[in-house]
Amino acid sequence: MTRPILQVALDLLELPRALAIADEAVQGGADWIEAGTPLIKSEGMEAVRALRDRFPTHPIVADMKIADTGTIEVEMAAKAGASIVCILGDADDVVIREAVRAARLYGIRLMADLINVVDPVGRSAELAGLGVTIINAHVGIDQQMIGRQSIDLLRQIRETTTVQIAVAGGLDAVTAAETVRHGADIVIVGGGIIRSGDVTGAATRVRAAIDNPDLAPKKKKSLDDEIREILMTVSAPNITDAMHRKGSMVGLFSLCGDVKMVGKAVTVQTIAGDWAKPVEAIDHAEAGDVLVINNDSCTHVAPWGELATRSALNRGITGVVIDGAVRDVDDIRKLRFPLFAKATQPNAGEPKGLGEINAEILCGGQYVNPGDWIVGDESGVVVIPAERAYEVARRALEVKKTEERIRAEIERGATLSSISELLKWEKK
Predict the structure, then answer these.
(1) How many CB atoms sit inside 10 A of residue 402's CB?
(2) Could you tell me the CA-to-CA distances from 128 to 96, 208, 251 in Å, in that order?
(3) Which of the chain's termini has less CB crowding within 10 Å, N or C?
(4) CA 290, 394, 157, 180: dihedral to nearest 10 degrees?
(5) Beta 32-35 vs 5-10: how paired, if at all?
(6) Lowest pLDDT segment from 3-17, 60-74, 411-425
(7) What is residue 137's predicted lDDT score, i.e. its pLDDT?
(8) pLDDT in tens, 110-154
(9) Region for 423 from its dihedrals, namely left if φ exceeds 0, alpha if ψ lies in -120 to 50, beta otherwise
(10) Across the chain, what does the average pLDDT equal?
């Protein structure tokens, strides 16, 4: 088997950062360097020229995503120093033919991107017949967020495609190895490398995984397990960023300080310190759930205390959110239990039994339904609608990766303003 090619996708906006990250990726074993579509849109052909100057012996990929004027776009990328140019697989055949002719004229290769192609198997055969030399089984970022995977696209086309196959779309060391096991010739990794605080280390791990794919982990997780695992690694601010500043509860604080809570909501509506339904809800919950209690922001009487907390721990409940007050604070803090409330109050209510369990409630200004995912840390509590849980978790992870890279650059002496090129990107 030929050694798989590792292509690093520089999907960035700032050319100086892209060049620095490319240096680190090459040290980690990257073979091909891609001027990603965002970089080309931001910096134009200067990005391709700069990469060619910096890496004279490495193939440079220009991810142009050509949809029209195949000749002129291939020509400009080739003259700037590209070795491979990317065209959309669903472009008209006339565009494909013109791009192929231009690529042959300038001695470069053409990669067709199958993103959004309705019939990838049939179209791959057509593209190969038209003269395309690389087919890219690519699932776009927004598609990845809802669970679509490039490995599924690869499986569809591998048996019927004779040209080289590249695979792209949210890959890391584990999934990159899986693509090689299924016949990928070129493995394209973007965020899994370029957003790492240690780009060289990340590239080295991917390189090792695709060179020895049978040694890479193959463990499968349920969707809920994957969602929980991701949400445990990201912060509440990461999640609100991923949701465009939505989902955050207002006025709650972490009673036990630096603790983390992730789980599906069991909702409780109660009134003025009535603690019957909150305590009954403990027995409705499963291990890993979070109780979300609306006490109508009542802070002069508490529907929750130490004994309820100990009962919740016995059930494996991972946290409690109360739009209201809590008591027995000293004892609860000793338990280090994730409990979020609006106030502390020694007064206890009475078990009258008013309210209901597992109905839609309003808590901290956010509507919460049973089964919604709840994440809490010292920054606050965020609600993720159940139907968007996987998507939001994946987007939050991308936010975290981006911050990790920026943090690493700040630790090396840069400033947030200079990294982000704020003056250049301020709204005009």
Answers:
(1) 16
(2) 11, 30, 59
(3) C
(4) -100
(5) parallel
(6) 411-425
(7) 93
(8) 999 999 899 999 999 999 999 999 999 998 777 767 667 788 888
(9) alpha
(10) 94
Contact 99, 65 (CB under 8 A): no
Spatial distance between the Cα atoms of 253 and 250, rounded to a whole number of angstroms: 9
286, exposed or middle or buried, with CB in 10 Å at 0-12, 13-18, 19+?
exposed
- Cβ distance 367 to 360 under 8 Å? yes
What is the average pLDDT across 82-106?
A: 97
**Bridge partners of residue 91, in order along the sequence:** none
- Structure tokens that stand for 207 in this block: 């390189």
pLDDT in tens, 241-265: 999 999 999 999 999 999 999 999 9
Output the pLDDT for position 273. 83
Look-up: residue for tokens 């890279």?
A: 405
Task: Give me the CATH code for the 5-220 domain, please.
Answer: 3.20.20.70
Question: Sorting pLDDT into bands at 50, 70 and 90, what band is 220?
Answer: low
With a pLDDT cut of 70, the percent of the chain lying above it is 97
Across 169-289, the runs of DSSP E, i.e. the strands, are 186-189, 253-254, 261-269
Pick from 26, 34, 242: which is nearest to 138 by CA? 34
Q: How confident is the model at residue 424 (pLDDT cuts 50, 70, 90)?
A: confident
Domain boundaries, the chain: 5-220, 228-390
Q: Which two tokens stand for residue 40?
A: 């080309």
Question: Going along 148-245, which residue ranges are E strands?
Answer: 164-168, 186-189
Average pLDDT over residues 24-29: 97
What's the CATH code, domain 228-390? 3.50.30.40
Q: Which residues of 247-276 are buried (b: 16+ CB within 10 A; e: fewer)?
A: bbbeebebbbeebbbbbbbbbbbbbebbbb
Query: Maximum distance among all alpha carbons in the chain?
Result: 84
Strands 339-341 and 319-326, sheet pairing: parallel
List the beta bridge partners of residue 321: 292, 340
Q: Which helix (H) or strand (E) holds 8?
A: strand 5-10
Alpha-carbon distance of 255 to 342, in angstroms, equals: 9
